[in-house]
Amino acid sequence: MKFTDIIKRVRGDAPVNRVASLVQAQGRVIAELNTRLKRIEAQLARTDAQLSVLTGGVSIPEQRTGEVIRAIDPEAWSSVAQSGELSFHKRPNMRSSASWEDDIARDWMELGFEADAWAGKLIIDVGAGSRLRTLYFRGAKIAALEPLAEQFAAEVEWQDIDKADEMYATPVEKLVPELVGRGDLIVSINALDHGFDFETGIHNIRQYAKPDAMVFLSFDQHEKPDNMHPLVLNDKIVRDVFERNGFEVVKCTPRRRYHGAKGPGALNYWLRPV
Question: Can you tell me the mean pLDDT for 76-94?
Fold first, then answer.
């Protein structure tokens, strides 16, 4: 005799019906959860495909809180992100404007940097771009660190990167031995979020800094990567990186976003070696 028949004889049909209803309800819940899970998996697959397109077919690994990832490998970064950078700099933009020098001088003064304060000192301009913001500093020696330096010098009409005292056509992620321990002031503006390995870049900047150096870094925050900005960066992430690599944050101030109106704003960091 079946177990359900025994229950019917002892208790009647009501308990059996209640058990059957519960089992059916559980089955419906499981089916609904499976349906939702399949929808989520499909959405994740679509997102991965979109990110793959944005990063030249290179998959982006998972990022955990407080961790900086290598969001794109160097070869893909060079062929995708750097190609876009060169095209941007060759088109008319703020650097080609007649007001460029006045605009840059105003920005430096608003940040509290005096034009004559670094005379006779070495300023390392990381991700210098095609036109140097650091020419604002009178009497200083400028070392420009820019992966597209040679292309900028040869192909950008309004470039002045060739006015730097030293020019290194290399990304911040690659250490330049000639600069180790020489920087009195190290600046990077609207550049570090365009790289492929933030932590290695900060590690190298620390190697360039003299013990009493000042380091000023300014860049947009990013919640998700794209083909020109492969890294997810925010205040929590970058502060952890600074601390791990021997920097103290002296001051941090917000700034308007460098690229477009959407997304979190930029941040200015004043750092000291510790």
Answer: 84
Tell me whether strands 183-189 and 266-273 are parallel, antiparallel or unpaired. Answer: unpaired
Q: Identify which of 198, 241, 202, 231 has the alpha carbon closest to the alpha carbon of residue 72.
A: 231
Residue 133's closest CA among 39, 207, 218? Answer: 218
pLDDT in tens, 9-32: 555 566 556 655 665 766 676 667
How far separated are the first and last CA of the chain, in Å rounded?
A: 81
Longest Cα–Cα distance in the chain: 102
Closest listed residue to residue 270, CA positions, set 182, 175, 181, 186: 186
| Section 227-246 average pLDDT | 91
Around Cβ 34, how many Cβ atoms within 10 Å?
A: 10
Q: What is the DSSP letter of 176?
A: -
Burial of 249 (0-12, 13-18, 19+ CB in 10 A): middle
User: Radius of gyration (Cα) for the chain, nearest Å?
Assistant: 27
DSSP 113: -
- CA distances to 18, 22, 207 from 2, rounded to whole Å, are 17, 19, 79
Q: Which of 216, 154, 213, 148 is nearest to 179 (CA)?
A: 213
Residue 66 burial (CB count, 10 A)? 11
Beta strand 141-145 with 166-168 is: parallel
Facing residues of 142 across strands? 123
